[in-house]
Automatic annotation (TrEMBL):
GO biological process terms held by the UniProt record: cellular response to oxidative stress; hydrogen peroxide catabolic process; response to reactive oxygen species
Gene Ontology molecular functions: heme binding; peroxidase activity
Family according to the record: Belongs to the peroxidase family.
Ranges for domain Plant heme peroxidase family profile: 111-325
Pfam families in the cross-refs: peroxidase (PF00141)
Extent of the signal sequence: 1-21
Species whose genome carries this gene: Chlorella ohadii
Ranges that cross the membrane: none
The name this protein goes by in its record: Plant heme peroxidase family profile domain-containing protein
Domain of life: Eukaryota
Length: 333
């Protein structure tokens, strides 16, 4: 059964850092802006007790996420209904990821993937609150969710969710009252976009994602999200102290393969609508269209360097690492 009423699966695993069940972002500082400027206490992100070398050596097993959460048949069915809606929308009325069988680049692909991350990211570890809970819909217009792409992406998710729920309501195979939550739509769409843009396959990244997230009714504290100007130390500590390896940080950052900078016209990589591994060559080259958070992945630590190099060398290795980091605890991908 699907959220919001469902009690069953406490799933919590998703596309992005905050996604890990109980161990997502525990930022204590304010935002750092995209160019490294400082907003509020951004420069004072807490790093007490963070030793990058020590943490980076530790085996990363996420203690918070149940392995292989079993999905019921209804869940899988709902995911297929959602998948179809995402692909085509309602021709003539609601756009889909494809139009006439071709990737629809008018849809904010980058904004949709970023939205998955931004719903999951503001997790307060200490309070055990936040994460992938659909709260993004209350956080639009508040930094860092001010750009048109993410706002448009959220609007599109609203429309897709309505379509999915209408389809479920009319389907005799689906028990009465079952609906999909915003939180599930926000996570599923991130995976669907990556597949549509030529990244990991549906079997690798979409199918393993559990659903059943409950929707929050208030905003999370989005000031916990990192800005593009974040330093290496703060970025590495942030991910490591939340249970992510440096390799996972590098893999997830590869999402910047897709999309645009805040001017909405400058692509971050040569092919902003295509999910490949070109991003990592751009990182090695110190491409100025990337953010500081991207460029610092190279030249600061042997493990992140090795990951950047191996993802740059081999697209398949990157896809598999991205899918796995996106859905840690979902089982093998
Ligand atoms: C590692 C820490 C990260 C930082 C500091 C960061 C920061 C940023 C910033 C500053 C932007 C530009 C915002 C704007 O245009 O207004 C951006 C765009 C983007 N981010 Fe991240 N991000 C991070 C990780 C991620 C992750 C984990 C994902 C998804 C898995 C992601 C997906 C995206 C996408 C797809 C865009 C392009 C959005 C568009 O086309 O509108 N980012 N990010």
């Amino acid at each position: 059964m699907a959220a919001p009423q469902r009690q069953g699966l406490a799933l919590l695993v998703l596309l992005a850092v905050g996604a890990r069940a109980g161990c997502p972002f525990g930022f204590s500082g304010g935002l750092e802006d995209a160019e490294g400027g400082v907003q509020g206490a951004g420069r004072r992100l807490q790093q007490a007790g963070c030793n990058i070398n020590t943490l980076a050596q530790q085996a990363v097993t996420n203690p918070f996420v149940p392995a292989n959460p079993a999905q019921g048949q209804v869940d899988n069915y709902i995911k297929e209904v959602a998948w179809k809606v995402f692909q085509t929308g309602y021709p003539g009325f609601v756009p889909g990821l494809y139009k006439n069988g071709v990737l629809n680049t008018k849809v904010p692909l980058g904004g949709l993937l970023r939205l998955s991350f931004h719903d999951a990211g503001p997790f307060n570890k200490a309070a055990g609150k936040g994460g992938a809970n659909g709260s993004l819909r209350f956080e639009l217009g508040v930094r860092p969710n001010t750009n048109k792409n993410i706002i448009d992406a959220a609007g599109l998710c609203d429309r897709w969710r309505t379509m999915i729920n209408n389809a479920l309501a009319a389907d005799p195979k689906v028990p009465k009252g079952v609906q999909i939550s915003y939180a599930d739509v926000y996570q599923l769409i991130g995976a669907a976009v990556v597949v549509a843009a030529g990244g990991p396959t549906k079997a690798q990244i979409y199918d393993p994602l559990p659903i059943g997230r409950r929707d929050a009714t208030v905003a999370d504290n989005v000031a916990q999200m990192p800005g593009g100007g974040i330093s290496w130390d703060n970025l590495a500590c942030l991910f490591l102290t939340n249970g992510y390896s440096l390799e996972e940080l590098v893999a997830l950052s590869g999402a910047h393969e897709l999309g645009f900078r805040q001017d909405r016209t400058t692509p971050m990589t040569a092919n902003p609508n295509s999910f490949t591994n070109e991003y990592f060559t751009a990182v090695i080259n110190g491409n100025r269209n990337l953010f500081n958070s991207d460029r610092v992945l190279w030249g600061n630590h042997a493990r992140s360097d090795a990951a950047v190099q191996s993802f740059a060398n081999n697209k398949g290795v990157f896809f598999s690492a991205f899918a796995k980091a996106s859905c840690s605890g979902c089982g093998a991908s």
